[in-house]
Amino acid sequence: MLRIHFTAEDMTRVRFAPRPSPVPELHAALLMLGAPHEGLLFGRWRGRLLRTLPGAAEPLAELVPGGAAPHFLDVLGGTRDEGFALIRSARPGFVRSELERVYAGQGPVPPWVRALHDGDAEAWGTLDRAQRAAYGTVLAPVWPLVQDLHRAEFTRYALTAAEQGLAAALAAVAPGSRLRDGVWEWPATPAAREARAVPEVRAVREVRLDGRGLVLLPTFHWRGGPLVQDLPDRPLVLTYPAGGGIPPTPEPRGARGGAGGLSAALGRTRTEVLRALTEPRTTTDLARRTGISNATASAHATALRAAGLITTTRTGRSVHHERTPLGALLLTGAAG
Fold first, then answer.
1. Of 252, 310, 243, 246, residue with least CA distance to 278
2. Average pLDDT of 309-316?
3. Among the listed residues 194, 229, 195, 185, the one whose alpha carbon sits nearest the alpha carbon of residue 2
4. Which helix (H) or strand (E) covers residue 163, if one does?
5. Which of 27, 145, 150, 316 has its CA 20 to 30 Å from the CA of residue 251?
């Protein structure tokens, strides 16, 4: 179980990451790649990546000898290069202490890790090449889809917070969790109980924000418990599993045109219905424009309305559907 203690100030400093962060998403994927659980849903994904991951990425495994990653890797950054630069800018003393921590009692230390401990520029180059090689194989093919999934998760959180308040929004992030008396309690999930190799997962972990605030960051490659970045003088970053329970897969070549990535998140027909609402339209008009039956158009409109992406108004016997600002925002982002 994870228990996060809020002060009154922290309640006003909870924010949702506005966009996905490549480095934490990559590290979550690499943790999942080495985890033995979730074979049914992640087995094919894991097998494909293990066959295609280049040798240049192998040093990354040597940074987590006992399943514990050094905390100088705990960065955000809006782009891959920005995240890698933040890692490289870590204080030398912090890098040394973290490498010593993760290798304590773990046996021989690889030569390049020893060199990294000493601040060797060539060792930093090895790490940089490994990060880039892993990103190119694991994340680059699915990054547009990750962006769309993050946007949908952001929308879901924002709607819940606006309509029902912070406690409901936090509970929606982690089903079964609850915010009570200033403490957000996460129960241990079955997946988390199986992921005992990950040090963030313990019987009970108490984390105190003490005014630092909290950043919520969904990941679409990890199915264990929450991953916590808890560093002094920084907001706590909580990376939590989101999405449909299976890892994103690359789209067929040429499939991504316009809102192709959004189609993977919402479904192709549902996305076409949303795109057709350039102006308020009836169910019959939507069906005609998208080539589906009235009943199917009505079902998709119901789902889009439940997600807060369209509104429906009735005047007499006429029903008209219209995009909400959030629905328009999703399409604008997908086209960009």
1. 310
2. 86
3. 185
4. helix 143-164
5. 27
pTM for this entry: 0.71
CA–CA distance, 92 with 125 (Å, rounded to integer): 15
Contact 16, 226 (CB under 8 A): no
Strand partners, 2: 186, 205
Domains of the chain and CATH, by start? 2-241 (no CATH), 260-335 (1.10.10.10)
Element (H or E) spanning 314, and its range? strand 310-315
Can you read off the two tokens belonging to residue 292?
A: 């589906």
The pLDDT tens digits of the residues spanning 168-191 come to 999 988 888 899 999 999 887 555
Burial label for 268, CB within 10 Å (0-12, 13-18, 19+), is: middle
Burial of residue 108 (CB within 10 Å: 0-12, 13-18, 19+) is exposed
**Could you report how far apart the first and last alpha carbons of the chain are, in Å?**
40
Crossing angle between the packed helical segments 143-164 and 166-173, to the nearest 10 degrees: 150
Q: Could you tell me whether strands 214-219 and 236-241 are parallel, antiparallel, or unpaired per DSSP bridges?
A: parallel
